[in-house]
Write a structure and sequence with these properties.
alpha+beta, 60s Ribosomal Protein L30, Chain: A, 11 helices, rod-shaped
Length: 375
């Protein structure tokens, strides 16, 4: 017997049918498939009463000569083959389907349904390639239970893999959200930390400035100590009326420099100031040029008022005496820009008593070194 093998591959509908349940009645199954089947069901029912024998396989069936019924006999035989668990029974039904199909092609090749099958068209779910598929499968003795178990195992593994993929996807988005939250927290921390960093930098800059100031102050203190030592050396061994007090001031009684009531230096006063200038010249020259020092001359009077042709008050007298000393020191070589004069009249007494000794103590010239404040 020669069959037409014009479609060697399995049709998609036949492959899908293998996975469908076979518990439902065949007629219900066919009615749901396509309207054409409803038209032909009656023919199938009539043909079912006609027995067809297949002695080789123990299957009886009846072959009708009508083309539509032959087609549905092929379909029903294949359905029975698929539903059976016995390999010999499957082969018998496939043999019957092959006989019915061959008769259709031999005796009714010019009918519409034969031409449609011959051209590869599907009738409902059935096509010629479906028949060849069933024939090849059932005649190989394939154990479908093992295949179905394998399919179930693969389906279970696929479901497990899909669940794991979904779990990992959820975890991925959780990690992404956590990462975004951490980035947001990091941005907030940076926004908080950056001002603190700038404040710390400013603080370090101020500390460095303070350290520089301290170093400068230490240098100034050493320089001032050098100047004060020069002043101390300038008056060492002089009379009791010239002394170096606890403030670092050289104190000279006014009568050693000026006659009473005047601001003109007497010769003995010039000699004393000349000796004083000689003692401080060398230390001043050895000072660092960055040390900004000043030699201040301050004149004080006693409380007794003065009113003569030269001075109207103790203010004028004290200022004039301070200026006279400054001018002499300038002439002795002390730089003019390092000299300053101030008069305080009788408003800063050393001894507040109203005695001649107190008056003599308060009439004085004070010379001291100081450092100018940094601008």
């Amino acid at each position: 017997m020669v069959l037409h093998r014009h479609r060697p591959l399995l049709g998609q509908s036949a492959q899908a049918s293998l996975k469908q349940p076979i518990d439902a009645p065949w007629c219900s199954h066919m009615i749901k498939r396509m309207p054409l089947r409803a038209l032909l069901i009656g023919c199938c029912l009539i043909a079912a009463s006609m027995p067809l024998a297949s002695p080789a396989f123990g299957v009886e069936y009846s072959l009708d000569h009508r083309p539509n019924v032959l087609v549905f006999q092929v379909i029903e035989a294949l359905e029975q083959a698929r539903a059976s668990d016995n390999i010999e029974t499957r082969r018998g039904y496939v043999h019957l389907a092959e006989a019915a199909l061959q008769r259709l092609f031999d005796q009714h090749r010019d009918t519409e349904i034969a031409l449609r099958l011959h051209s590869g068209e599907e009738i409902g779910w059935f096509s010629y390639s479906d028949f060849t598929f069933y024939r090849d499968i059932f005649f190989t003795g394939t154990d479908f239970s093992a295949l179905e178990q394998r399919i179930d195992d693969l389906s279970t593994a696929l479901e497990t893999a899909q669940q794991e993929a979904r779990r990992r996807e959820r975890n991925y988005w959780v990690v992404i959200q956590q990462n975004r939250s951490l980035q947001s927290n990091l941005s907030d921390m940076e926004a908080t930390l950056n001002p603190l960093i700038r404040q710390n930098q400013d603080l370090n800059t101020r500390i460095e400035q303070y350290q520089d100031t301290i170093r400068t102050s230490e240098q100034d203190i050493r320089a001032l100590n050098t100047l004060n030592q020069a002043l101390r050396d300038a008056v060492t061994g002089d009379a009791a009326k010239v002394l170096f007090d606890e403030r670092g001031y050289v104190r000279i009684q006014s009568e050693l420099l000026f006659p009473s009531g005047t601001a003109d230096l007497q010769p003995s006063g010039e000699a004393r100031l000349s000796q004083f200038a000689d003692h401080i010249q060398l230390p001043l020259l050895n000072l660092d040029e960055n040390v900004d020092w000043l030699l201040r001359v301050e004149a004080h009077t006693d409380r007794r008022p003065i009113n003569n042709e030269h001075f109207a008050s103790n203010w004028e007298l004290s200022v004039a005496r301070a200026v006279s000393v400054v001018k002499f020191l300038e002439g002795a070589g002390v730089p003019s820009n390092r000299l300053a004069a101030a008069g305080y009249a009788d408003y800063q007494p050393v001894d507040p008593r109203e005695t001649l000794a107190a008056y003599a103590t308060n009439r004085r010239i004070e010379i001291h070194m100081e450092l100018r404040p940094a601008e």
